[in-house]
Amino acid sequence: MNTTRRDAMKFMASAASLTAAAPYLSAAAAAGAGAVNSVDYTMNKLWHGVCYYPELWPVEDIARDIAEMKKLGINVIRIGEFTWSTLEPREGKISTQFMREVMDKFHAADIAVVFCTPTPTPPVWLTHGHPDRLFVNADGERLIHGARQHVSYEHPAVRKACFRIVEALAKDLGDHPALIAWQIDNELKCHVAEDFSPAAIAAWHKWLQKRYVTIERLNEDWGTHMWSTHYQSFEQVPAPLKTPFLHNASLSTAYRLFNRESIAEFSDLQCDIIRQYSKAPITHNTNPAFNVSHERLFKNLDFAAYDAYPSSKEWQALVFRSDMYRAAKPGRPFWLMETSVSHNGWLGNHSAMHPDGFLKAEAVLVYGLGGEGVNYWLWRQQRSGAEISHSAVMSSWFKPTTGYAQVKQVEAARKQLEPLMIASKPLVPEIAVTWSDHARAMIETEAMDKEPGFPETYGGLVQLWHGLLFEQGYHRDVRFEGATLEGLKLLITPAMPYVSEEFLQRVIAFVKAGGVWLIAPGTGTRTREHTVHTDSGMGLLDAVAGVETQYVFPLTATGITGTAGDKTLNFTGWCAAVTAATSDTKVLGTLNSPLVPGTAFLTERRLGKGKVVLLSAHPTGDEGKVFIKNLIQGYAQALNIATPFVATQGTVVCPRVDKQGKHLWVIINMDGVGGTVNIPANTRDAITGQIAATTQLQLGSYEWRVVSV
């Protein structure tokens, strides 16, 4: 018996002991994680706000701004993220008086404040004459002052200045009665990725020493005798700047992980300072494309927030991000911290204007899926800078824009929604897709094999699987790798090259209790250090799935097909061709090629009360999509997962439950062409109280309804 197989059997035995004490507490309990609604939080308002920049306009304009906001029902502003040069025009000369006076005025008008730390835009005095403090990109280019995110947050002088301004703000404004929340920085790592400055590289060497302890361990884990990259000290390990060909995969992935952990620690340290002086909750505004570890970033934040600027054709991005950030902080509603009232734009680029009614539908969707706040970027069109072509509520010359009337529509909807949303919470989904920040870093190092039109990025691939659930009408989550599995019946894990023992322990407990784990293509074929397994094709996954991996190879453009039932399928991407290794492993799909004789791409193994399903190659084309949908639907039905919503394409159902256990459906037409939703008999309109006359609800363009089921 080889070493990995023996270790796998020991692992399976230890995993079995997790659930031996009780039939089923939950995967979360087995892992020591919190419950789905672990946060004791009561929502008492739906926030409707704008990003506001009083430092850019005459002080006399504030009263006029407040009066106009009150007309629109704006009840919160977000301020401060770009004010550093206003607050500290000379190094060490900090005054928060202006911002306090602004907050006083808004508090008097009963408009709340989310205050951002101004660290994304350091003033010129911090970097002028100090090139060592600037950010260096992967091409070795040193960025300069002039936009934002241009400094190295690893540099001690930069960190000292950042923390000094944060402390001054927290100390002076942390107890202000207008303050309802803090936001750390703004869109961390939106415009930049890994930092290659000298300060970052010095921090990298310290990170390596902490992670590996000895250089011998690093050399062993990375296999550094390849191409004679063997190191004698941590200081010799380079950052992956340009080299004649390519760096070791282990090095490239580790550098990404280091940077993303470091930026999260930068956020943590700001939180630590703020919490010394303020009890207000703290968040950060991100989105899946930014170069951060989302799970690690939100670990020490109080609630999640995201940004989204979709055109009316891209509305599904709102569904995906709401599903992802709703699950990021269980039991705590998220915020859409930035979106456009009409169109997105910056120098040389702009998107199409929203059609009438889209903004209202966008806001109702976010509130329905678990959002507490919707915030527009921005209140008044910027008269200068790089984003002068971006839409706003008011023009630079202070006239209502095309978005003004749309904001009115949102406020009318918010008033009707608020009592219903306060009295209910999003229904906990029974199906989830796994999001792994480690997997994302690995796939950025080692790109996926793909055919044209297949997702280019890890995020795109997760969204593909999320979309398959959404299109079928299933209520769904996107859960971080380390999240609880409580409440789930079906977990889908795509493209996770490294599967940790900790994750496997929790999933095995989940499966043994009756869940189904669908291991989707691209999962398990790499080690933690981004090397190839030496004793089995998928490491511990082979034992868990009850298979033996024979080959791992790229399928795209090979012409190799597969057979499952009466279906012949084409494939794209990498494939792990396997054979059954245990008597309880069923082969459900085989590969058709003399190159990989007698191998399978789809297997099923019963484990306790549940099943482990391995789909090790991605079926492609329309028939492949239908096949995957049917595969999901089959297991969902077997698990008695709630019947999917039957709605026309472009119409979304957001299920919620109130304190009495009654279900509410927030239904929105998002594509602007109208649609229908099947509803149970005797369904009542939650706003008018009227009982529906039929079991099919008709919605017009961007129309929304809330029904009591």
From TrEMBL:
Residues 1-27 form the signal peptide. The keyword Hydrolase applies. Substrate binds at R148, N186, W346. GO terms for cellular component: beta-galactosidase complex. Its EC number is 3.2.1.23. Residues 430-636 form the Beta-galactosidase trimerisation domain. PROSITE patterns: TAT. It is an enzyme of class 3 (hydrolase). GO terms for molecular function: beta-galactosidase activity; metal ion binding. One of its GO terms (biological process) is carbohydrate metabolic process. Residues 51-416 form the Glycoside hydrolase family 42 N-terminal domain. It catalyses: Hydrolysis of terminal non-reducing beta-D-galactose residues in beta-D-galactosides. Keywords: Glycosidase, Hydrolase, Metal-binding, Signal, Zinc. InterPro entries: Beta_galactosidase_Trimer, Class_I_gatase-like, GH, Glyco_hydro_42, Glyco_hydro_42_N, TAT_signal. The active site is at E187, E338. Belongs to the glycosyl hydrolase 42 family. This is Beta-galactosidase.
